[in-house]
Each structure stands twice: as structure tokens, then as C-alpha cells.
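Q: C-alpha cells for this one, please.
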Amino acid sequence: MNEVYSIHEPSTEKKVSTFLQYYDSDKTRRNYQDALYRYFTRVYTVGENTLASLDAAAFAYLQELAAGRPVINDLYSAAGSFSGQYAPATANLYIRSICTWLNDCGIALTRRERQRVFNKIPPVESVRREAELTRSLFRAVYDRMTSEWARVLLLVMLGSGMRLSEALSLRISYVSWKKTYTEIFIPASDTKTKRSRVVYLTTEASLALKSYLESRKAESEFLFPYTCAAAERQMRFAADALASGKDKARIRAVHWHMTRKWFISRFSLYASRSVAEKLAGHEGYLTRSYHRFTKRQILGQFKKAERYLSILPPEQVQQVLQGPQGSAASPAENPGLAPAGKTSSASSGTGQQQETVLRGQLVRLESGKQVVLLDTGKYIVLNDDVTGDNVTNGFFPEKGTS
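A: Here is the predicted structure, written as C-alpha cells:
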């Protein structure tokens, strides 16, 4: 049975500014405001894109509709204009936003009328010419970012599946540095879905974040005290440097949201897709209602997928302390750098040299191994062959003993 909406006398007191207050998200309010502004510029008269100007235009326009002006003709005209100027998804968003506002004002279309309006817009298909999601791509983006905080932000997002807005809202107090993993709590107020969740970081993201926080000069409760516009500029510069800037559709082939696609895609290939979507805050109704995972199960799946999420080869960030023959380096010989952890013989018998790594540091031993020593006395062995996109490359956690 077709749904038929009744058309009421429009409320001439309805203001655009009041309508926008119903929405918590700044992005949603901005989209609705832009949609109404573009609608009025095509079917009516409006000044600048300000709330005061839109309120005045909406008041006069609603009065004309109440006097008998056919709103369906205006929507046909706007839909045709939008379809010729914007991508289908954008045109569809604008028309839906306008219909929502009209309905809120007491002017509702029949289902058939809505169908006719939306038929003037081409089907919504992706026009974004995205680059392929490869390690080499993200490593190139990482290398071309001009700020350390942006590079760390990239690793955090690639290794956790967070949205850009969520990552920029993170506070230092949200981070729990566990012995073998890093856990971040995202409160409901900072998520798009308004549901809190816990995410985990890859080893490379954890090390980069810890190093960044220890070395940065800015004192802030936020992990990344920067705006979304600043982050977008960093990605834009990197994309342009890679010749992946705007194409004819005015869309860049590399953008921040690709980090979520990388996380969900790679995680789903080598571990549970449901866990990937849960960690990324992308789960559907059935997943939320019927899938129940323990923390241990989620961590197990994350560890299984971790090496496929990492993009960088391990780098030597601290030289191995090598003491004189027959003994390891001592704290006295290296002020502020207390040796701890794994010590292995480079040769047997007298005169053997000792390999000493610093607790919590990522280092290369004389044997060629790169390891991170954990607080538990065990270490993680990292494979330094992380070139290309061979699925056997990446970070390989191994159990080690001290």
C-alpha cells in the first residue's frame, strides 16, 4: 500500500536556524545549511549563506507556498540543476535534505512525487577514483607528510580503524598502555554512532604514538591538538606530491577515510570481519544484536590481523648498547639508559660479546633481529622485510624469553 502524506498549511514561523538545532553533528548541520542555500539560489532569492539570510528567505518562501506556489515544480527544477552540477551522491543528499526540511515545515510529498523528483538524479554510484589500498601507497603518503603528528595520526588510524573526527577527539586519559598492547576507549560523545567502544593499536602505531607524546612540546590533554582542516591539509599535500590530487571530478585519489577501508578490508581478509566492523564502529543492527565477543576473543583476532595492518618496516630508533668484551653495557656507562631484557651470546667461549636491548625500545640486535622488549620480560621479534604487499610480510609477533 502506497504511503500518502497529507499537506498541511506550512508554518511561516519555522526558521532554518531552529531546524538545524535538531542535529548534534556540525557536519550534518553544515550539509543541511548548504543544501537549503543552494536550493534557494535556484528557485528563489537569497543573500549570503548565513543563518539570518536563510531564515529570511525561508520565511518568504513558505508564505508563497502557503499561497499556492507548487513546491513540486521547484523540486523538479532543483533536482535537474543539482544533477548537472554535482556528483549523484551530493545531488541526492541535497534533495533529501530539502525534503526533510519541507516535511518539518508541514509540507510533505506523496511517495509518487518523491519518486519523480529523485528520478531526475542519476543513480548514486561512486565517482571517487581512489588509489588501490596497498602498503606501498600508505608508506609513500607517510613519507610525504610534512608534520610528525600527521604521520603518527596516519599510523593510529590505519592500525585502529578510527574515523578522523574520532582520532582528533582522543584525550591522553583515554589511552591505556598495557604490557603487550595499547587500548583506547572512545566515549559515545566522540563517536559518529553515539556508541562508546574500545579499540587497539598496532605495535608500530603504539611505538610511534608513545615517542610522539614524549617528544612533543605542546601541552594538551588531546593526543592530537589539531583541527580537521589541518589534518586534511596534510593529506592534501601528500596526495598532491604523489600526483594523486584532484581529477576532473575534483576528487582526490587519496584521503583520510581510506584508512578505515584499509583497516576493515585487511582485518576481514585474515581475521573476523564482524570483529573488524565492531572495532571500527561500523557494525550493523544484526551484528550489534547477536554477535557477542569477549575481550580476549577480540584481542586474539586483532593480534591475528595486526601484521597485515602494519605498513612500515621496523626502524632502528635506539642504537644497541654494546659493552666491553665479556660484559654488557652498564647503566653507569650510559646515564639514563638502563639496560634490561634479552641478552644473547654472539659467539661461544671467551671474549663473547653481549647484545643488550633497552626495555620498551625498538632496536636491531647484532644478530640482525629487530625486537621490542616488553615489560613482561619477553620480547616481540619484528621481521624487517616489509616491502611490497606480500601477505607474509609485516610485523610478526613471536614469543620470546628473556
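A few notes: The chain is about 45% helix and 10% strand. The CA atoms of residues 59 and 123 lie 33 Å apart.
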